Amino acid sequence: MEISELLMQAANLMLTGMVGVFIFLSILILAVKGLSKLSASQPIPEQPTTKTRSQRSESAGVPAQHIAAISAAIAQFRQNN
Amino acid sequence: MDGLLNLWQATGLANLTFPALSMIAVGCGLLYLAIAKGFEPLLLVPIGFGAILTNIPVAALAEPGGLLYYVYYIGIDSGVFPLLIFMGVGALTDFSALIANPRMLLLGAAAQFGIFATLFGAILLNFIPGFEFTLQDASAIAIIGGADGPTAIFLASKLSPELLGAIAVAAYSYMALVPIIQPPIMRLLTSEEERSIAMPQLRPVSKREKVLFPLMVLALTLLFLPAASPLVGMFCLGNLMRESGVVDRLSNTAQNELINITTIFLGLAVGSKLAADQFLTVETLGILLLGALAFSIGTASGVYMAKVMNRVSSNPINPLVGAAGVSAVPMAARVVNKVGLESNPHNFLLMHAMGPNVAGVLGSAVAAGILLALVG
Fold this sequence. Notes:
The structure holds two protein chains of two kinds.
Chain A: H1 2-41, H2 46-57, H3 64-80
Chain B: H1 2-9, H2 12-15, H3 18-35, H4 41-54, H5 67-77, H6 80-92, H7 96-100, H8 105-110, H9 113-124, H10 135-142, H11 149-159, H12 164-176, H13 178-189, H14 192-195, H15 207-224, H16 229-244, H17 248-255, H18 257-271, H19 276-279, H20 282-312, H21 331-343, H22 350-375
Helix pairs in contact in B: 3-4, 4-18, 5-18, 6-11, 6-16, 6-17, 6-18, 9-10, 9-20, 10-11, 11-12, 11-22, 12-20, 13-20, 13-21, 15-16, 16-17, 17-18, 21-22
């Protein structure tokens, strides 16, 4: 009898838990989408920071596209290892 | 003569019991798996060695006054070690694949069904004589399905410390077995056609998004699930240190030295819980069984969710990436990539699988928070 009571509680927990996880992560999806819209609408302030950064760390004259390609490759390599 | 007798009484030979000997054998088995087979060696070496140390007769290393007792008390009883590791994991995690395709969070959520279904299964085991799992025990066992070592240890230390040894060993063993457990389930549930689906390339993600992401996750945790804030908070701190780019020294320490030091002591402390009277029980067998079940159900529900999303969505989604939702970063994503390549040699799914993979880490931390809030 006690086990069946526990089973009911477990089933309840299963339902609330899954609903809870889905709600939380769905809100996160909306938030991430909002975030990307926000940063897509204001791309200008982001540009200078990356530029100064890359100029500081790299010698001048390396095209920004090359730096982007190299850093993307490094990120992928790191993820693979 | 008395002196000789006393000396004999102080030897291990005179005090060795069969259960302790069996646990030393278990410790040696873990060392063998780690060293010869390469199963999660970073953790299984200290855990296995800790298990041997704990079961040395007379020395009582895991009793009050012994080294391992204090390591456990300071690091795991308090919950500190798993949280420090989680900060390091945060500093190691790149969320760009997830930010580029946030719908992958649904796969990370679906795979958590493995946790909650196992919770139910653990209570079902109570029908068999010899098993007496409470709801707390069942929750701690079920989190093995989150495929996340630190989360499992954190939750077990809070809900069911006496089962911690078995739970940690099961969690890390099954994480090492992901390449063996997952592929048959993935092949069974998908058709050749589905496995060869190519997915569109992910968009590049700006630095601003990456910096704001951990802060946003933290804000949502603060608002909706404060019980998950120890795990999610430390994870977000690590990730912010990585992405902000202004504290590289701290980020590097969290990713390397700190996580390594903590791993040594975490392993030893888990090993200290592998004492014969706690581990050599029928419940341990049940935990090992339930752990495998949790992994399998999690994989299956992730794959099913991806199949549903593939039907509904305008962009094609390869159902295999759903299997990466169980977390176990980055092993599960690599498995997805490998199985995908078998069907379509030009289809590299690794980056696509990293999205659900890191979503699974968040998902299991959220599931742990929910369990803490409801049964803790």
